Predict the 3D structure of the following.
Amino acid sequence: MENNIENMILCEKDEIPFLQLPSFQKQKWLHHAFATRLGGVSTGIFSTMNLGFNRGDSDANVLENYRRFCAAAGFDLQDLVATAQTHQTNLLRVGAKDRGAGILRPKPWHDIDGLVTNEPHVALCVYGADCVPMLFADPVHHAIGVAHAGWRGTVAGIAAATVAKMKREFGTQAGDLLVGIGPSIGPCCFEVDTPVAEKFLSCPFLPVKTCVVKKDNGKWNIDLWEANAQILRKAGVCHIEKGMICTKCHSDLLWSHRATGGKRGGMCGILCIEEAAQ
């Protein structure tokens, strides 16, 4: 079953919903999906699809949630690769030898907020519950990447860093990239104080500051979707798709840190190359 929600497609299989981006869905060499908070086995504040091992839920519940999500969305659980995201701009190239890391065995790396690969059946995971999950696809070199951008990662330029990493590793040209911005807190709900707003106003990666708007109450609203899109455009990326789904507005479907006061589970997006390039 499929329905549209904002600029994304809401799919469902075996009563487990997940989201996809239309432009990525059309790329037959790729497979991708974003989890929701529904369809799992977790209880209490983690009810029901919690994909975060470090939230306080039982590992058995989290692993069963991964099994259910992967079965519904069409991934092999053993292919997943995950790392510990800490709002940095560090990126790591991974391959077949890393499959299962962070899911079926402990994470061997820390402080990594982005992953890249050009190998098939290496499913890259990116986490969020208001932070921006980004998917990167290079159809020329059949290479992919994922990046996690909270406000700190955004102003530090992780979007541009991912483009640069893919160029170094695979010869990716920015103009060939397709980048998708997944479910995350929208400009409608991301209110910040002046010190955070000033980080955006002074950010060298942002060519214009239209993503930062001062409110009558003295606070600021920030558009993380547009901020990352501006950074990507400055890096030479032309093909950017915004999912436009605010996690806080849709907290019945998605995990939102702000909506729950931090008492929540975790979601992930997954991106994988289906087959080796011919």
User: Anything to note?
Assistant: The radius of gyration is 17 Å.
